[in-house]
Amino acid sequence: MRVVIADDELLLREGLARLLEAVGLDVVGLAWDRPSLQKAVALDRPDVAIVDIKMPPTHTDEGLQAAVQIRQDHPTVGVLVLSHYLDTRYAIRLLEQQVGGVGYLLKERVSNVHVLVDALHRLADNECVVDPTIVAQLFGRRRTRALVDELTEREREVLGLMAEGFSNSRIAAALKLSPKTVERHVGHIFATLGLSDSDSQHRRVLAVLAWLRAT
Amino acid sequence: MSRVARSALAAAGVAAGAEVSIIVARAPGYQPFLPIGWALVAVLLPGCALIVVGYAGAGRAETRSAGLLLSGAGVAWFVAGWNSSEADSRSVFAAGRLASLIWPVLAVHAVLRWQAPLRRVERALLAACYLWTGVLGGLVSVLFVDPTLTGCSACAADPLLIMQLPTLAAGSAWLAAVGGVVWSGLLVVVQIDRLLRCPPLRRRLDLPVALAGVGVCTITWAWYVRELWGGGDNQTALDSWLWLCQAVLLVGVACGAAWPAIALRITRLRLVRLVVEAASAPVLGGLSATLATVLNDPSARLLYPVADGWLVDANGAPASPPASTSTLTRLHRGESTIAYLANDTGSLEAGPLLDEITRTIRLTLDNERLHAQHSWQLRQLQESRRRIVAAADRERRTLERDLHDGAQQGMVALSLALSLAELQSSEPNRIALLQAARREVTEAVVELRAIARGVYPRELGDEGLDAALEVLAESSVSPVTIDLLLGRTSSALESATYFAVRQCIERQIVGAAAPARVRIRRSAVGLTVDICTDQRPEGLLAVEDRVGAVGGSLTVQPGDSPRVRVHLELPCAS
Fold it and tell me: Which of A12, A86, A140 lies nearest to residue B409, judging by beta carbons?
């Protein structure tokens, strides 16, 4: 898999590149700000770009804007936004603006190379990725919990993975269930929460997140 | 010294007055066109008035020399009355002749000096007048003309007569008259010029005496003109009228000179009344309005000195920079400055009126000054509090950024390195150790994030209160509903509100019966914030400090039991 990494912090950029190369990924470009990132993506045609949310010059949300831009210019390139902030609004903003192929992970998550590589593969498959901590925060809300408590433990697990952007087949693989069982669980969850199921996996994630946030 | 001089002048006045009374009484035709009683009044009244006012004036430091001059003019007026065929002796007559020429100069000199110290040009002009009339008109006629030989058979013989030189005497008399026309005209101009230059408040006081002075000069001018073209020594009705006018104008000079003192009394009475009124219904800054009324100058206002040379109004607000046209007059007691009187219509000049005003309203003035100075100090404290909180917030933001950009990044880089080492290692024990280390670092990153949030939430600075409260509510363990209608406002206000809300909902228990409610609205003065919780919040002192720093207030009110409502009022202007 071809990867471009954009982070203005040299240590992180290089560290991430070496880690990914160590697990056999192909780091084809490194960038330190939005223009260099866009250039690298255009030239190197990666499968996924890993983008720090904060980049020069304003150090606020350049990464988000760059992600949206890249998805528009190169729809085949997945974008993983890395952030220090546990802020659900950022994640939802990113997902709302793009249909699949985008992800939002907290920065400390990347040290777990298996999680990272899994996320990169899902992005390359045009799925989406949401950090489990963000999903956990939404689950923690009181009114949410009241409704979520009506679900079985297995269903709660399924709902969490759905919110993190997992597709049914991946959920089945992760929980070692048959795809049919997962589908049944999903159907029951949607009925309990009063959501209408969507054929698009991405819309489904967004609907679940929005529901979690709104309640 | 001055006491001796004014007493001597008064005594001389009494003597001269007695002598002139005798002369007038003895001569039924002293003023042929006036009855003798009126003539007596017309002679005595101006002299007496001048001597009395002059005597009083000489007793005060600021009018000492002017008072002496005024008394002198009164004496000279009496002596001028001796210029009559009824005079006892030739020397009395000679003195009368000299005085009749000198008194107008003396009177005008007194008038000018009464208003203000003389300028150099005025002093020179007056000296020239004295010399010209004294030598040419007076001395020459005394030394070289024997009145008994010029038709005044009843006149006494002249003891000072050197020789009879009627041509020289006539010539010098003509010169004196021409000079008189010139100098009296010039003195009219000088006095009018002075009036125009004078500050308005001063002018109100000086106008009567100055007008009388102008009148005296005008009559003198007319008298000299009559001397040049009227000809002859025969008394005419015109002469009598001129003389009467002189007498009246001299009374006017005396009254005019007394006017400032009278005006002061009147002003003082009005002031006392106004101050009593002001004291019965104290209005802050009311003294400025009172003074504006008393001084008849709407632009007049009081400013009080505070540290560093600043001037503040009665509310302690720094005085707006005075317009280029406005002037400041210092009100003082001894050496210390009590206040400044600012006005836009010219300098008030530290004169007796202002001193009088300062004395009369001393207590009220002190009261208002102390209040103004206190208010100013409070303002300074408020400002300083605001700056301290703002500086603390700035440092919190910087610290938050440093934690994110420095420490957190470094720790993430470390965890990446550990992860890489893990991949490259083949020894199971070592891998386990590295994994444990990586987990520790990851947990530390999570903790650091929480700490950074606690120091200063990023979205509060970047996106504002709205976003910050939304995130706060979302990450709160207990439910919170936020009702907020607001755009961005000042960062001080946003911080104060945010930290107040956070402090209040922090102790909200997890199993609370109802969610904590936060309601924020814009009000006429700024923001009102209501926070309803199940528990009385702790650590409200820190919140009060923040709220106080922006000039706001915090009250805790009982809500529907057992709930508590914390109410904040935050003014926008700070």
Answer: A12
Q: How far, in Å, CA of B137 to CA of B127, rounded? A: 15
Across the interface, whether the CB atoms of B477 and A140 are under 8 A apart is answered yes
**CA–CA separation, B550 and B171 (whole Å):** 89
Tell me the C-alpha distance between A20 and A25, whole Å: 5
In angstroms, the CA B199 to CA B300 distance is 14
Predicted TM-score of the model (pTM): 0.64
Two structure tokens written together for B189: 């101009």
Alpha-carbon span B356 to B275, nearest angstrom: 13
Measured in angstroms, the CA of A79 and the nearest CA of chain B are apart by: 20
State the Cα angle at A198 between A195 and A199, rounded to 5°. 160
CB contact under 8 A, A140 and B462: no
Kindly report the CA angle at B504 between B502 and B505, in degrees rounded to 5? 70
pLDDT (tens, 9 = 90+) of chain A, 215 residues, equals 999 999 999 999 999 999 999 999 999 999 999 999 999 999 999 999 999 998 888 888 889 999 999 999 999 999 999 998 888 888 888 888 877 889 999 999 988 999 999 999 999 988 889 999 888 887 776 556 667 777 888 888 888 898 888 888 889 998 999 999 998 998 888 888 877 766 677 777 877 777 777 65
Residue of A5, A86, A111, A209 for testing the chain B interface, max B β-carbons within 10 Å: A111
Identify whether the C-beta of residue B249 lies closer than 8 Å to the C-beta of residue B215.
Answer: yes
Cβ B446–A60 below 8 Å, yes or no? no
CA distance B475 to chain A (A): 7
CA of B526 to nearest chain A CA: how many angstroms apart?
Answer: 29
Inter-chain CB proximity A15 and B408 less than 8 Å: no
Residues 6+ apart with CB under 8 A from A205: A95, A128, A130, A162, A163, A165
Which domains, and CATH codes, for chain A? 2-130 (3.40.50.2300), 135-214 (1.10.10.10)
